[in-house]
Specification:
The structure is a homodimer. Chain A is an alpha/beta fold. Chain A contains 7 helices and 28 strands. In chain A, strand 20 and strand 21 form a beta hairpin. Chain A starts with a helix and ends with a strand. The relative contact order of chain A is 0.13.
Chain lengths: 396, 396
């Protein structure tokens, strides 16, 4: 994977979006705060703003008596000035008036006479107060370039009044299917023909990874046709995925075509992953090229493992979403070959408070194996099998 | 939560979409297969189609000799008939010709003379062949009603030629902010004023959970105004989220307003979750209503815990995405109070092959606590604290 990313240049264009529509996009540049947050000292509790010093030594037996000089209105400037021995009512989120430096919670006070409160517990300077800039100071970098924008990031930017943001354009991913037997899904499949599956599982993975799928059709198993189609697809897009047939002759054709697309060409031919051995990882023009196995289960697992990180890299993403790995207990023994990573589709079930992964067996030609699965169990390279009841990593 | 879901009626309308645009939507009805998949017997290996019986007893020392009668073309009907003692070249994914019942891998054959092959290993009936309907039979239910459509589901439907699908309409979630001090993010915040954050973190969570956020503005802290706004928001939408201030008086106002919206009204007032105690869970007209705490960190955590499952329930979703729980080791001791679930924002880091969760401390008034975090550590109800190095669950 590192070999591939080394040859991929993150060089996408940028665009400006309304911040709340930039969810799950990638910030094109670092964002700095134009102002402090909070912009004024705020109460974090309902109570009374006062000088902390006036409460020192106060207790239930010996309360401090303070004169009530008013109430802080919400959402407006405070007109009240609070002097020594005085206090003002303040609500959570309200502004702390000049002259005060702490808030005593209403629970730690009593009203004995109109216009006077008794404080029964001392507060420290700054207690129950958010200081100016305690969340963010003016000029602070609030997001680095390449930050994947999550709901809390969108909220944080709104708090600072940043309602537009420059984001990286979605990488355009050309998806080409090959195979004399492959027909589009909306056409009847005649004898010997199958409908295109892989273009659409890849389409979904590209969308989920922040990319824009560009369907370039189904190309016959012919060197000239496939070369021409891949060449123009690569020029017009930011990445190229080829879903080839699984026969040796077609794989050879695909690999010759990919190797003709430019330097450095094919980087890895065949990966130690089951299912998915005949995978091709390549790069040309600084763009990633992925040759997928023809079997739908292999194609999906390989695209998830290699295409997704390549797209994050293209976008320059510094905090890619940590998608769906979870731990579950294996519901039956699984064999594996050491020296190879195995991925086994699995259903997840809660039993006795634990999460169990029940392998779903099926040839990698069977797409509905994946439809019935919640994720895939990973069997590490160095394991020769895993016993029932052991904990495994499951990728959703 | 169960108390809330009991009063929420999943009664959304449906709409028809192109299947590949239905990613991350919910199927409105069960989908049955119009045809068998595969529709014809297919080879899973490159090799020769033959009658298995003709290979019985074959070995390197005593090969079976078969007459080659042709090659199966990809994507077209087979014109060849294969008789006893005969074989035909077949590629992976190719159709098995009439008269044959197995495929011998090319690796287990030799070509000695033109027009003849030697089989050096016996194959069983059905070996290296996908039978008609082995993936799906005609009439099989391939997806249940309420199924959340993932990339593999979209691919599977395309394989069956199902290029349009009926999905549940996105639930419309009315988002109302309240507070005399709250101003829209695109306006300057004057003294004592703050910009609306929670409407936008909720917006992001709603989008991610398959809903459609509908912003209903910022309402003053006034019973009549808030009652009128919530009443019409509830009629026009499928769910209602109120992000209120945190002061006791405003919380009381919110709860009186929510209780006036219809039966059963408030179900839960205050949850044993920190941060987020002043949460209100309610229902009216069969729709969920959520009163969020004012603090942005609490609001986000509570919306994630309660709004997301409510939306899945509204959509009738049977396989809601298992989002982002992962296991990590706690990077420092954390205290907690037994009898309460605590959620602590945390950064994740890989160290020595393990994933570590480093708590990010900050008052729940500080939105940038969450911006700097990858997720939140859950401290279970019955724990009075967790020691450094222990494994914890982190929600992304």
């Amino acid at each position: 994977m590192a070999a591939l990313l080394k040859h991929v240049r993150p060089a996408l264009q940028t665009e400006s979006l309304k911040t709340h529509l930039a969810l799950d996009r990638v910030a094109a540049a670092a964002v700095r705060s134009p102002s402090a947050l909070p912009a004024f000292p705020r109460a974090t509790m309902d109570g009374y703003a006062l000088r902390a010093m006036d409460s020192f030594g106060a207790s239930a037996g010996l309360p401090a008596y303070l004169t009530l000089v008013g109430e802080v209105p919400m959402g407006r400037a405070v007109q009240i000035t609070v002097g020594p021995g005085e206090a003002a009512i303040v609500h959570t989120g309200g502004m702390i008036p000049d002259g005060t430096d702490a808030v005593v919670m209403i629970e730690n006070t009593q009203v004995s006479r109109e216009g006077e409160i008794e404080v029964v517990k001392a507060v420290a300077v700054g207690e129950n107060v958010l200081k100016i800039g305690e969340d963010v100071r003016a000029g602070d970098q609030v997001l680095p370039a390449g930050h994947w924008l999550r709901p809390q990031d969108v909220g944080g930017l709104q708090a600072l009044g940043i309602t537009e943001i420059q984001v990286v354009k979605r990488p355009r991913v050309a998806i080409l299917a090959t195979g004399d037997e492959v027909v589009p899904p909306d056409q009847p499949a005649g004898p010997g023909q199958v409908r295109d599956i892989n273009s659409y599982t890849v389409d979904g993975l590209v969308r989920r990874s922040g990319g824009e799928p560009v369907h370039c059709g189904i190309i016959r198993d012919n060197f000239e046709a496939l070369s021409a189609a891949t060449r123009s697809a690569l020029i017009e897009n930011d990445a190229l995925v080829l879903s080839a047939g699984s026969s040796v002759s077609v794989r050879d054709l695909t690999s010759r075509v990919i190797d003709g697309l430019g330097e450095p060409g094919i980087l890895v031919h065949g990966v130690a992953v089951k299912p998915g051995k005949p995978t091709i990882l390549a790069a040309a023009q600084g763009k990633p090229i992925l040759g997928l196995p023809g079997n739908p289960v292999s194609a999906m697992i390989i695209a998830d493992l290699f295409l997704t990180p390549a797209l994050y890299h293209l976008m320059g993403c510094t905090n890619p979403p940590r998608r769906g790995w979870l731990r579950a207990r294996l519901a039956r023994n699984l064999d594996s070959e050491a020296g190879r990573e195995d991925y086994v589709p699995a259903r997840l079930e809660e039993r006795d408070g634990d999460l169990w992964a029940e392998p779903v067996f099926g040839k990698s030609n069977l797409i509905f194996t994946l439809v019935h699965a919640h994720g895939v169990i990973k069997i590490p390279m160095n394991a020769s099998g895993i016993a029932e009841g052991e904990w495994v990593d499951v990728r959703l």
